[in-house]
Amino acid sequence: MNCFGVFKNYALILSFLSLIFSCLCAALSVDTSLRLSAEEVAYIQKRDTFTQDKILNIVQDLFPSGFDKNINKLPRIAFCFSGGGSRALITSLGFMQGMQECGLVDCASYCALLSGSSWFYTTLMLKNMDLDNYREFIKSRMAQPFNKSVYGFWSELSSVSKQRGYSSISDGYGKSVYTYLLGDTVSENASFDDIRKAVVSGAYNLPFPLFTAIVKSGYPYKWLEFNPFLTGSDELGGYVKTANWGSCFEKGVCTKELPELSLASFMGIWGSAYCINRSDFERCGGAECLKSQPFYYYLEQTLGRIISTDNLLYSAMNQIESRSMFENHMFDMGLTSSEYKRVVVADAGLDFNLPTPPLLKKERGIDLIFICDASAYTEQNDEHEQFKALTEHARRNGIAIPDLENPIKLTDDIFVFEDKDPCIPTIVYFKLWTSFGTLKFDYSNDEFDAVCDNAKNMVTNFQYGINLTIKKKTMLLNQRRGWFKNLLSYLSI
Length: 493
Fold this sequence. Notes:
By secondary structure, the chain is an alpha/beta fold. The protein has helices at about 5-25, 40-60, 85-100, 115-125, 130-140, 150-165, 170-180, 190-200, 265-270, 280-285, 295-305, 310-315, 385-395, 445-460, 465-475, 480-490, and strands at about 75-80, 110-115, 210-215, 220-225, 230-235, 240, 250, 255, 325, 340-345, 370-375, 410, 415, 425-430. It contains 16 helices and 14 strands.
């Protein structure tokens, strides 16, 4: 082989290696384009072909024969499940069972989760059961006492520290919750990779999951979205692959790749209400309580429900801002979210308990949101405070939402918020309160059934109203066609 041939081969090899290096760098860098992942787009496109037929079946009986052919656009629907510990897990399950009975789970493209409802969806996806069988499984698990053993905490913290070089209290807490809910029925080291494979293979017939938390680097807090493929937010200014979140980043490039976090660790992050500080406590309606007891009294009451109080780890957890500290993927990128190398990532319910932010991302094109709210409200902190916080968050981020101060009140517990502009999503809000506290982990079979059936029945008893709301949104989305305007006026809905 002559010199030119050797040089040519070397050039090809170098070019190939350069391409591989570029791909690796792209995979381990921050994406500031704020686009959806290709995998999410593919999943939603495939699901749309399924959901749109189901939605059309609901709306077509409203129109004269053949008129459904003139419908250019059907609404994209999402569920939104609040936080609230085990209570939220059970309520979300009941709500989804009700929606399934009404044929509406098959109409939904997305599901946003927070705290306890994220435990529901994570365990549902890992078990990959139908809702009825999942209900029996999780009810049997939650009938057992919650184990506050310090051994589980220390062993998980030690294991994570060896893998990542650092650990968070949320790792130990998440492992306790994960083990309590799932036991040895799934791998103890399950990660988002297990869910990614199932999503890509088409093994799931569920709305696409959007889990949430907040970054506590100064108030107002910034929301963080976790889905099987990307983690980040438009607020923060960028996303990284979920497999790489928790690794070290600087100036948008990964400087040290760490193993992917387990789903147990993520469950600890999403449900880390113990990261509450005094300001959060006051904002969430605790100001009156502080008149009778100091803040640390309530903090210790919280910590005592998740771990035995007679150990050093319990004392360490009193160092509030060190309980859920993670590497900041936006570090040193010249944005307001990039000042700190590590940030506290905590339960989004410490801001407000309705995980709407990822659903309002314009690229997702969501037209109709059904909110299942299992929050624990007090006289100082009712749903109106949540609506105010949600409205303020949308205003700060330039997101258009309906006026939440003027709902259409369908029942004492079901409200509709809508706007004449079809581009602004309609919100249907279900208020599902119970007397059970957020820190109650275990439920007897009777308690479980009472909470679950309450949510399920509220949905099934209102099926006509839900269908009518879907029909009305369909008409609004197609209102530029004159015959739809006339029909809307004629029906007066």
